[in-house]
């Protein structure tokens, strides 16, 4: 170990990189995390972040095991106890309800989650404001990164968690496949005439899905995915005109929209790294897969990556096997492949069915949601899948 600065280097201090650092450190590995941006600011409880996550119960269990969830729960989050999904009529929606005294998940702000992971995520080295300029990786020599400041760090394994456009993935020649959806997601927080009732709602429109997620302060966070032409049109509206359009698009399921923050938008795409492991390195989180936000599962997939990686490496080490070896990394890749590909396929199929299948297909899918709501065993399967 004398030739290495750490067991594991993690490139990327976003949510998934932070969770991987915390999980691997908790499993007994010596971890150094490298993040090119500044450390996340401490949570102050001011204005609610526009960027929020719908954390599944599985993700919450992981954060609880890492000692992070109590800090989040004591600050601010919004559990939701039901989900309502519809196409042309809220009265014919597919609805999932949590078991008594349970929730289907919780809406948590990006800033709060990352601040909690950074502050409470265990005993590992945090290097903020440190950008990687060069990287190499092999099974025998391990991984080495050179920082722009000139410092070099070496470890047995490099975990690449530096986002969907991952520079390190590209430097190591790790290929990805995918496509642009020619859509943008518009995000804002809104006030509505009626309370959200701790229900997450989503309407499938022919131009893309509209999600209304319950916030702890009584407002809703919206994620309105739509084609680029409609996105440009909506972004050009003043607040009152946008609220009217949003009320119409949501079929006033919560009554009139009577307040909204400024809109932000980001492009939508699908991306998949078919081979997430190479000698000395593994790719996780958004660097490994990007899904359409209609299921709200992107961050949950990434957190599951972090948990599975820590578990796989820990089990190999306990069994006396080379935890950094290709065989161990291949076991991790196999463990994650099925869930990742399934989620990409489901979200892509739903997106295409509603936005590219024409009015007839959209009506058929709308009727299918209504029928599915009456098929209790199938509905329970979907609910379990949504809960992780």
- Silhouette: globular
Cα end-to-end separation: 37 Å
Going by CATH, the architecture of the largest domain would be 3-Layer(bba) Sandwich
Query: Main β-sheet: number of strands, strand sense, barrel status?
Result: 9 strands, mixed
* CATH topology descriptor of the largest domain: FAD/NAD(P)-binding domain
Features:
388 residues, alpha+beta, FAD/NAD(P)-binding domain, D-Amino Acid Oxidase, Chain A, domain 2, 2 domains, 9-stranded mixed beta sheet, 11 helices, 20 strands, globular
Structure description:
- By secondary structure, this protein is an alpha+beta fold.
- It has two domains: 6-41 and 121-176 and 273-350, FAD/NAD(P)-binding domain (3-Layer(bba) Sandwich), CATH 3.50.50.60; 75-108 and 181-268 and 357-386, D-Amino Acid Oxidase, subunit A, domain 2 (D-Amino Acid Oxidase, Chain A, domain 2, 2-Layer Sandwich).
- 37% of the residues lie in helices and 30% in strands.
- It contains eleven helices and 20 strands.
- The chain has helices spanning 15-26, 57-65, 69-75, 110-120, 167-171, 228-235, 239-249, 298-318, 326-355, 358-374, 376-386; strands at 6-11, 31-35, 52-55, 78-80, 82-86, 94-97, 105-109, 125-128, 132-138, 142-147, 152-160, 177-192, 199-205, 208-214, 220-227, 257-260, 264-272, 277-278, 281-283, 289-290.
- Strands 5, 6, 12, 13, 14, 15, 16, 17 and 20 form a nine-stranded mixed beta sheet that branches.
- The longest helix has 30 residues, at 326-355.
- The radius of gyration is 21 Å and the shape is globular.
- It starts with 5 loop residues before the first strand and ends with a helix.
């Amino acid at each position: 170990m004398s030739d290495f600065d750490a067991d594991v280097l993690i490139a990327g201090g976003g949510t998934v990189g932070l969770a991987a650092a915390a999980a691997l450190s908790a499993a007994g590995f010596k971890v150094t995390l490298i993040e090119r941006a500044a450390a996340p600011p401490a949570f102050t409880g001011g204005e609610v972040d526009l960027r929020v996550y719908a954390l599944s119960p599985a993700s919450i269990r992981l954060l609880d095991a890492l000692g992070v969830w109590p800090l989040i729960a004591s600050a601010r989050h919004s559990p939701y106890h039901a989900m309502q999904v519809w196409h042309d009529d809220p009265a014919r929606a597919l609805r999932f309800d949590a078991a008594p005294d349970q929730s289907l998940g919780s809406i948590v702000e990006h800033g709060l989650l990352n601040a909690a992971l950074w502050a409470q995520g265990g005993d590992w080295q945090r290097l903020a404001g440190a950008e990687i300029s060069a990287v190499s990786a092999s099974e025998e020599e391990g991984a080495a990164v050179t920082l722009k400041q000139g410092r070099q760090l070496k470890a047995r394994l490099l975990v690449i968690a530096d986002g969907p456009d991952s520079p390190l993935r590209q430097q190591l020649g790790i290929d990805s496949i995918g496509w642009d959806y020619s859509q943008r997601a518009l995000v804002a927080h809104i006030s509505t005439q009626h309370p959200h009732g701790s229900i997450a709602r989503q309407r499938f429109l022919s131009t893309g899905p509209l999600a209304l997620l319950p916030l702890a302060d009584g407002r809703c966070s919206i994620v309105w995915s739509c084609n680029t032409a409609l996105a440009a049109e909506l972004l050009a509206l003043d607040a009152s005109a946008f609220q009217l359009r949003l009320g119409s698009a949501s079929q006033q399921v919560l009554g009139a929209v009577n307040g909204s923050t400024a809109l932000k938008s980001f492009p939508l795409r699908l991306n998949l790294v078919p081979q997430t492991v190479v000698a000395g390195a593994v790719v996780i989180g958004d660097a490994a897969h990007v899904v359409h936000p209609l299921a709200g599962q992107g961050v949950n997939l990434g957190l599951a990556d972090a948990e599975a990686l820590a578990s796989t490496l820990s089990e190999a080490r306990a069994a006396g096997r080379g935890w950094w070896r290709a065989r161990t990394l291949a076991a991790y890749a196999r463990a994650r492949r099925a869930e990742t590909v399934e989620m990409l396929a489901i979200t892509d199929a739903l997106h295409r069915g509603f936005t590219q299948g024409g009015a007839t297909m959209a009506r058929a899918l709308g009727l299918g949601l209504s029928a599915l709501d009456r098929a209790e065993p199938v509905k329970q399967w979907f609910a379990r899948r949504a809960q992780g």
